[in-house]
Amino acid sequence: MHRRIEDYALIGDEQTAALVGRDGSVDWLCLPRFDSAACFAALLGDEDNGHWRIAPENAGACTRRAYRPDTLVLDTEWDTDEGSVRVTDLMPQREHAPDLVRVVEGLSGRVRMRSLLRLRFDYGSVVPWMRRSDGHRVAVAGPDSVWLRSEPPVHTYGKDFRTHSEFTVEAGDKVAFVLTWHPSHRPRPPLCDPFEALETSVQDWRAWAARCRYDGPHRDAVVRSLITLKALTYAPTGGIVAAPTTSLPEELGGVRNWDYRYCWLRDSTLTLGALLSAGYHEEAEAWRDWLLRAVAGDPAALQIMYGLSGERRLSEYEIPWLSGYAGSSPVRVGNSAVEQLQLDVYGEVIDSLSLARRSGLPSRPHMWRVECAMMEFLRVAWRQPDEGIWEVRGPRRHFVYSKVMAWVAADRAVRTLEDDPSLDGDIEGWRAMRDEVHREVCERGFDPVRNTFTQSYGSPELDASLLLIPRVGFLPPDDPRVVGTVDAVRAELARDGFLVRRYSTTTTAGVDGLPGDEGTFVVCSFWLADALHLTGRTREARELFERLVGLTNDLGLLSEEYDPVAGRQLGNFPQAFSHIGLVVTALSLFGVDETVDGAVGGTVDGTGEAPEAGNPG
Questions:
Q1: Range list of H helices, 127-267
Q2: What one-character DSSP code corresponds to residue 254?
Q3: Hey, is 26 helix, strand or coil?
């Protein structure tokens, strides 16, 4: 039986990440990058697909676990009849090669420990050749090489294509294991001192967390979310992956299983705003610069997602030898949604660059030229149907949110020229486009009988993305159409008044082109809290936020979705978008001393009011 998704902890080195279960087993790790093939893939199959467990002999789940405060260093402890022991897991910031460090420390008594290592390269399909070399166990297969050592050395042997270690710890004893990956054709990298790495990692993470400017309610949850976002950052480029996993299901046993180990443009505005408002300007600048590099080129070829370094080819294929988490197949690598037309991303990119400019981030010489090129493409393209924010695999539609974000693109471009008339641009043409989009959305995307905007033109269905209409400034929060939309979404898409679905998968025939169902979408529930706050219902918004924080696991981590019936997390884990939602909502509800213009104000543009739309609809 698979462990629950929330039974896992995250550790990482800002280039890749591992998931560690309550029983001390590392069940997921891709080396050397987030998007590399996994060498531990038990998460999506079984133990024969690779894992590494260190725990007391015959022990099950741990007695307790926790991150060391304000760090990504994990302590897992067991109380046994013989005594107590702690295993500390971390991935230190790499200098030469990725290291997974596991330190075993005796707390009391005398505890017999076992380490069982199954290395399986290429997503659990390749059993490596093992040998001994200079005090290490060395695993090699094709391009991959992994070196394992312990300090001090303990009894280690191979059996049944597994590496076993057995040893005993008493109070005060420490045994460290270090697993290091490097290309098999290269010499072994310099050795990592595991005890020094532990001390340095704790200091570095705490120094980073101390920069957080938020000091309101649930600060621990906000800091944990920011640490998670930092851990999901690919340090060499500044890109932030949506999640470190692939194919964790949106429905147990279902087919809605996707690879999220890439960087989505859609996350850009909220990510940038959260980082800026929380005080992390360096990270915000790195993310902005990644964004500029990724989108460079023909605006007509803009993708919704890119690889860690801006790679464009993310071809999707299935891995048949993995059975899938809890039998949820297929397991997918790559994501064919990269080929979709999603017009909202143009608005998100231009909004992000506008926010960066207003926030005082250093400008880049080509930034405005990129925005102008996008606007000239969008001037015509906004009239097309598209696949929409949720990357549906059904027919294209005129999704209302896509049109709203086209309006955002035009609005931010116009406002940039108004603020800086020295820039070149077709301000009158973009004003006309802004007015036309606004008029069409209010005429074709609004249901006057039900007093709500709808998912797409001519459709009676609703969509959680409509909750963002007041935030982006398309209409002011007190507009009756906005209030009616918020109430309609809460009535039709929210379970128990606070867990929000993206859209209906049962009544929207053929919209997403997929069978089955999915859980409630965590970030959409945060959007509901934001919308309630903007429409003057702050008490309800804060009550909702309290309930949403309660969905985190014992370590403060959130996945993509939540199953309110089974009471468990679903989807890829941990999910950047969910944690961004938590941070943004906390900042909106409880504020910081000095908010960044545009980051956490009443709307994305930070004014608390809707920008002039030319035609109020």
A1: 194-209, 219-231
A2: S
A3: strand
Q: Is the pLDDT of residue 604 over 80?
A: no
CA 553, 556, 558: angle at the middle one, nearest 5?
Answer: 65
Instruction: Map tokens 């988490």 to a residue.
Output: 325
Largest CA distance in the chain: 78
Q: Record the tokens describing residue 350, joined without a space.
A: 């231009």
Which residues are 466's β-sheet partners?
A: none
Burial of 30 (0-12, 13-18, 19+ CB in 10 A): buried
Contact call for residues 324 and 257 (beta carbons, < 8 A): yes
Copy the structure tokens of residue 239.
């890109």
Residue linked to tokens 């905007």 = 453
Q: What is the Cα 271 distance to its own chain's centre?
A: 10
What is the signed CA dihedral for 205, 206, 209, 213, rounded to 10 degrees? -160
Does 605 score more than 60 pLDDT?
no
- Give DSSP secondary structure letters for 342-364: -THHHHHHHHHHHHHHHHTPPP-
**318 Cβ contact list (under 8 Å, min separation 6):** 330, 331, 332, 333
Is 49:123 a contact under the CB 8 Å cutoff?
yes
Q: Tell me how far apart the terminal alpha carbons of the chain are, to the nearest angstrom.
A: 55
Rounded to 5°, the CA angle 124-129-130 comes to 110
Q: How far apart are CA 601 and CA 277, in angstroms?
A: 10
Distance CA 168, CA 189 (A): 29
**DSSP calls for 529-577:** HHHHHHTT-HHHHHHHHHHHHTTS-TTS---SEEETTTTEEESSSS-HH
Q: What span, in angstroms and rounded, lies between the C-alpha atoms of 8 and 21?
A: 5
Which SS3 state, helix, strand or coil, does residue 221 take?
helix
606 pLDDT higher than 50: no
- Please tell me the distance from the alpha carbon of residue 33 to that of residue 187, in angstroms, as a whole number: 19
Average pLDDT, the chain: 92
Is the separation of the CB atoms in 459 and 447 below 8 Å? no
Q: Both tokens of residue 312?
A: 């464009």
Count of other CB atoms within 10 angstroms of residue 562:
24
Distances (CA, A) of 390 to 341, 465, 477: 11, 9, 24
Q: Which of 91-95, 390-394, 609-613 is modeled with the greatest confidence?
A: 91-95
